[in-house]
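User: Good morning. I'm curious how FE2/S2 (inorganic) cluster would be positioned relative to this chain. Could you predict the structure with it bound?
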Amino acid sequence: MPRPQKHVFVCTQNRPQGHPRGSCASTGSAEIMNEFMNEIQNRALFETIGLTNTGCLGPCHAGPSVVVYPEGVMYGGLKKADVKTIVEEHLLGGVPVASLLVGADVW
Ligand code: FES
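Assistant: Good morning! Here's the predicted structure, ligand included:
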């Protein structure tokens, strides 16, 4: 397996309803994960982009949370349409999408 050029980690942590920390599952992380899968599949990026679902990344209040390496940047509050932007501008274009990154107080 070749080493991916970028690796995307999508928090899909779930917690019981009413939990004080909430969860990325409750704010739509499954849809975000599916959209990354669709984009990677449609663009045949399997060999260059890694995609992994993960547990809590920390800032549950700012989810759905996504971290991309090797840059080590975090996106938060993503909507389905944001995924295409991240794929095109960051994963393929090499420039993180500043408007979608969480603030320095979060990550
Ligand atoms: S549940 Fe996703 S960052 Fe905590």
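The chain has one domain: 6-100. Helices lie at 29-42, 80-92.
Let me know if you'd like a different ligand tried.
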